[in-house]
Amino acid sequence: MTEPASLIPFGNEGLDEILRGGLPTNRLYLLEGAPGSGKTTLSLQFLREGARRGERALYVTLSETKEELAIVAASHGWSIDEFDVFELSMADEVLGVGREQSILYSWEMELGETIKLIEAEVERVKPRRVVFDSLSEMRLLAQDPLRYRRQVLALKQFFAGRDTTVLLVDDLTASRDGGDGHLHSLCHGVITLERLTLEFGAARRRLQIQKLRGVDFVAGFHDFTIRKGGLDIYPRLIASAHQRALVGEAIPSGVPELDALLGGGPLRGTSTLITGPAGTGKTTIALQYAYAACERGERAVIYEFDERIGTLLARARSFNLDLQKHVDAGLLIVEQVDPAELSPGEFAARVRRRVEGDQARVIVIDSLNGYLAAMPQEQQLVLQMHELLSFLNQQAVATFLINPQQGLLGTMSSNINISYVADAVMLLRFFEADGRIRKAISVLKNRAGAHEDTIREFRVDAEGIRVGTPLVAFQGVLTGTPEYTGERLPLMENRERGA
């Protein structure tokens, strides 16, 4: 029985997680993608990891010059001196070809001679890792699909039996024909990079492992970005892979009347959707729970899609919530999310790092409308949010989702139907009574346990959050046009503290 091949790290943390540890050694792999998708940067990371592990590594370039490759590496703070670089324009210098030919261009050579030069360099260097960039030049030299296939097969046979892991790079400039399908079948694994241009904002990039023999890799698309230092790859979040025992204890807000609406408060490992029109106090409720968590010494994170951080902190201060002191102490982290600059995968990765790395126990997403607006052309956003919430629930994190509704008065609707995912739904409404615009609060559902079915007045002022007694003479709250017809006595005024 054949022993399974050992794995070597690719050299990219995110990709190694997708590969469940790395690539099987001594195999031939295909890295394909359109120009600008990040192939060269990822290839350099592959070779640099080999150099870091004390392995000889070789970059064979048929398209770019050594100087161009050095520029790409320098943009990430790297040096190509860590590994060998072989370009065909220096073949005479390396292999001792006569000086009368100072420059040897790949398109002037026969394909068979090109392959021989590459094989000779491999024999000389004896590398453990090889990057072959790129196959497009081989197609041009071959001029015939059958001849091209034969040479790729010969290249595979040449590396067979050698202690070498090979990465073939293809820029997909050739038309999709049988040659590419044949190439996929020849290689032990295929990694595809894609670059997607949106109507507005930064381009999106994503990665997919199309095949990898003998490895239980994470299938599907994985978002990534190119930054100084290489590719940041965000493995697709699979909540079931992060299960842990739930704590299930209620977390207080510091406002007993507010907690009473949810039977003592939201439980750890649950998500609470706070919905209502703009200006009713949705964000303030979420901030109250985040503030209380910091007061207990726990870490909380607020992802702000809509409001500027300075405005948020100033507004909270006017409601008797000094968030700045917890920001300074490192207990509260407020992240501004810039529209059109973030993919769903990167956002999920940010949240995961805060939970697993910083031990965040309360997460606030403000708001779901902003989440949608930041990623307008992404597909299946609700499903991705569902997976993220499942992960947070399994990590015993209390999550608060702000969901503004369209309109201020009358019948209202929402851009995103996420209520079926949330464990608890808290509804805020404006109502008119005694010649004033007031606010009402109620809980529509709570999967974690019992909850009040009353409608109470809700108020936010300089003293903070106040929740009044049940308003029994309330009509039409669920129609979107609530009306209070009872006595004035239960209503809260500035001089009163709601019981």
TrEMBL record:
It comes from the Bacteria. Keywords: Hydrolase, Kinase, Phosphoprotein, Repeat, Transferase. InterPro entries: AAA+_ATPase (IPR003593), Circadian_clock_KaiC-rel (IPR051347), KaiC (IPR030665), KaiC-like_dom (IPR014774), KaiC_dom (IPR010624), P-loop_NTPase (IPR027417). It is an enzyme of class 2 (transferase). SUPFAM superfamilies: P-loop containing nucleoside triphosphate hydrolases. GO terms for molecular function: ATP binding; hydrolase activity; protein serine/threonine kinase activity. Residues 6-247, 249-481 form the KaiC domain. Pfam families: ATPase. Its EC number is 2.7.11.1. This is non-specific serine/threonine protein kinase. It comes from Sphingomonas desiccabilis.
